[in-house]
Each structure stands twice: as C-alpha cells, then as structure tokens.
From TrEMBL:
UniProt topology in membrane: Multi-pass membrane protein
Name of the molecule in the record: Purine permease
A Pfam cross-reference name: Xan_ur_permease
Organism: Paenibacillus gallinarum
Keyword entries, A-Z: Cell membrane, Membrane, Transmembrane, Transmembrane helix, Transport
Chain segments annotated as transmembrane: 21-42, 48-66, 73-96, 102-121, 128-150, 162-181, 188-208, 237-262, 316-334, 340-364, 376-397, 403-425
Family membership noted in the UniProt record: Belongs to the nucleobase:cation symporter-2 (NCS2) (TC 2.A.40) family.
Location(s) in or outside the cell: Cell membrane
Main location group: membrane
PROSITE patterns: XANTH_URACIL_PERMASE
C-alpha cells in the first residue's frame, strides 16, 4: 500500500472525528497517569502538576502528528499514536529526587538527540535487544511500577489514612470494575476500561468526600506552552546514560509495533522507513524535553483499536493528534485528572502496570526458546537483579553518588544484566538445553 493511498477521502468528517476521539480515549488514561505519578513523586504543586498534564497531552499530539504525516527524513507515515513511555517513569523520579528536575529534562533532550542522530543505525543496535532482553526489560518495568500502584491504592504513601477500609474498598472496587469490564464487554468499551474505571471510581469517591475540585476550579481556560518551564536543562552523565537506555528500549518496542502495523496494512517496511520512524520518535523525545514533559513512544493499545475498528487510515490518527493538542492548551481540562483520588488511581494502575508485566511475559513466551538454558538464566538474573534493586535500593548506597543514579534503578540494572548476559550466552558458542528437555533437532531425529 502506498503512502498516498493511506488516506480515505470519502469518509464523512463526523465519522472521522468520532474515530479519532476513540483513539484519544483509548490512550488518555495512560497519558495522564504518567504525569500524575511523576508529579506526585516529585511533590509538584497543584498548578505545576496541571501544567505537566496539559503539556504532556499537547506533546503527545505533536509527537503523533510527526509520525503520522511522515516526510523525507522524519515520520514513518503509519497510523500510530505516541504517548508517554512508561519505562521512563522510575528513572525520571530517581533523577529528579537525586539531582533535580532540570537534570531530568537535560537527560531527556540528550537521549532524544542520540536517537535522532543514530536513527539510521538502530537496526544494528536493535540486535542487542532480542526478545529475551526486551521481554525481560518490559517485565522488570511492570514489576518495579507495581509498588507505586499499591501505595496509591492504599490512599497514598505516608498519608494518615493509608490502608483505611474506605481506601481499600474504593481501590479494589475500581480494580474489580476494570476486571468485569474486560470480562463482559468487547471492542471499544473494553479498550477504554481503565479510563472508565477512573471516571466511575472518582464519582464514587466523591460521595465519600475524597474528591478535591480546587485544582480544576483554579485552573485557567487557556495557557500557551512554555519551553523550559521547570528550568534550564542541566546534564549529568549518569542521568543521560539512563535515559538513553530507556530510549533504546522504547525504540525496540516501537519496532515491533511498526512491523505489526506494516503487516496489518500489507505494507513492507524498509530500513529507511524504520529510520524515519526512529528519527521522529527521537524528535518527539527532544520536544518533550524542551517543553518539560516526557519521552514518547508508540502506543500498542491503539494498534488493537485499529484492528477492532477496521479503519486503518492516517486521517483518523491525525484527528486524534489534533484533539490532544487542543486539550493541551486548556489547563482546566488537564486539571480534572487531579480530581482522581489516590485510591482510585491505585486501583487502575494495578491493572495497567500488571498489563505491562503480562506484556513482557507474553513476549518471552511467544518469542523466546525456553529449551535454551541460557535464555532461562538471562531472564532469571535480569528480573532478579531488577526486582532486587527495586526492593533493596540501599544495596549500592556505599558507592559514589554518580554511580547511584544508574545502580539504584532496578530497570537500568536489570536491563544491563540482560544485555550483558545475552552477549555472553547467545552471542558466543552453542547453547545448552534445559536439563530433561530435547531440542527440536533431537526430536526430529
């Protein structure tokens, strides 16, 4: 399918708008949850958090349009939605707490420039991130985020009513609602189950006096984006390396989404197509750093919505990107996300982050040969180190502070472990088998 034929010029504008709105709703929960978690962890004020949510939505829209429209050097030209990279949440919080927010955005900008410059060479770098590595990393990302979800479910860490019966009932009620939505609904309703859980949970929590309308009432109706809102970017080598690693993992995940979309659209993607997609993602990361929002990556849930709706043209995604930009200029809309109580947010993120874990496990189960002993060892050690450092962050407390930003991050430690072990085992020599199993060759014999 040629790039020119991707647009449908015969569809009614109202239908195109409604389809674009569906895509916004499908990714909205994931888009606002990331700034809520990061902003709360870094103790931002209500107005600062409103700005962070608003600029994040605006940047999501810009990043999406960069990919959708395509060009000679930037944009893969496929109907893809971009949103916050979940794998960046823990590193951003760690960098912010250790060095300050200026270093977060310096690291984001540097990682985006790295992706843009080396976009054409990523096909070679991706070989260091086979499914056994990316599957392990995605699993680690989900596992390291689960404690954050449970702290919120209890009512918020260090809150006086943490773990109260009321908070637990609301939090688990939201989780059960999301589970039931996924059990008894299909199609679009199922795809926005997280968003509906947040809305219904907030309404219920309002009857218990747990919803604060102040941030929404105080927010303005319009605010232009401000570059470097949280300060001039500053650079630290450890922080930069951390975000570069996060960016590479995001690129590896995006590659899978690009290839899946290529198959759905019956389009063979060339290395040049992928390079344009990588550069656009790098540019989106730079834009996120400049406007003090987040790194951005391709959202796979919107690919599922494409398949469900059977509408696979770029104009629908372009409308979705435009809607996100418009919403980003209206802080009052963005501020409504702050109305979500901690317990409601926690109930939803248990499911959301749990899905990240299950995505990693599915990647491992479908694409990794478990008959190879080395693969099992790579998964065991990388997940063990990643989860271990998350649970026992003081393990490397005696090391210099510069090393701490890397080694105190379970995602980074687990990722490095997976990459290193994969190079040793799968890059050198024949593979062993799991004791008691036979290889395909032996079974055939």
């Amino acid at each position: 399918m040629s790039r020119e034929r991707i647009f449908d010029r015969h569809r009614h504008p109202a239908k195109t708008f409604s389809l674009g709105l569906q895509h916004v709703l499908a990714m909205y929960a994931g888009a606002v949850i990331v700034p809520l978690i990061v902003g709360s962890a870094l103790e931002l004020s209500s107005s600062e958090l409103t700005y962070l949510i608003a600029i994040d939505l605006l940047a999501c829209g810009l990043a999406t349009l960069m990919q959708v429209w395509g060009g000679k050097y930037f944009g893969i030209g496929l109907p893809v939605m971009l949103g916050c990279a979940f794998q960046a949440v823990a590193p951003m919080i760690l960098i912010g707490k250790n060095f300050g927010m200026s270093y977060i955005y310096g690291a984001i900008i540097a990682s985006g420039l790295f992706v843009m410059i080396f976009g054409g060479f990523f096909s070679k770098l991706i070989r260091f991130f086979p499914p056994v590595v990316t599957g392990s990393v995605v699993t680690i990302i989900g596992l390291t985020l689960i404690p954050t979800a449970l702290n919120d479910l209890g009512g918020g860490q260090n809150q006086p009513d943490f773990g109260s019966i009321q908070n637990l009932c609301i939090g688990f009620g939201v989780l059960i609602f999301i589970i039931l939505m996924n059990r008894f609904t299909k199609g679009f309703l199922q795809s926005i189950s997280i968003l509906l859980g947040l809305v219904v949970g907030t309404i219920v929590a309002g009857f218990f006096g747990k919803v604060d309308l102040t941030p929404m009432l105080d927010a303005s109706w319009f605010r232009a984006p401000q570059p470097f809102h949280f300060g001039t970017p500053k650079f630290n080598i450890s922080a930069v390396l951390t975000m570069i690693l996060v960016a590479i993992v995001s690129i590896a995940e995006s590659t899978g989404v690009f290839m899946a979309l290529g198959k759905i659209l019956n389009k063979d993607l060339s290395s040049k197509d992928l390079a344009r997609g990588y550069r656009a993602e790098g540019l989106a990361i730079v834009v996120g750093g400049i406007f003090n929002s987040f790194p951005y990556t391709t959202y796979s849930q919107n690919v599922g919505l494409l398949q469900m709706s059977r509408v696979k043209t770029r104009d629908v995604i372009a409308v979705a990107g435009g809607l996100l930009i418009i919403i980003g200029f209206v802080p009052k809309i963005a501020a409504t996300a702050q109305m979500i109580p901690h317990s409601v947010l926690g109930g939803a993120t248990v499911a959301l982050f749990g899905m990240v874990v299950s995505s990693g496990i599915r990647m491992l189960a479908e694409q990794v040969d478990f008959n190879r002993y080395e693969n099992l060892l790579i998964i065991a050690c990388s997940v063990g180190m990643g989860l271990g450092v998350t649970v026992v962050p003081e393990l490397f407390a005696q090391l210099p502070e510069e090393a701490g930003i890397l080694l105190n991050n379970g995602i980074v430690v687990g990722s490095f472990t997976a990459i290193f072990m994969n190079l040793i085992f799968n890059g050198l020599g024949p593979a062993k088998e799991v004791p008691g199993t036979k290889s395909t060759g032996e079974e055939a014999a």
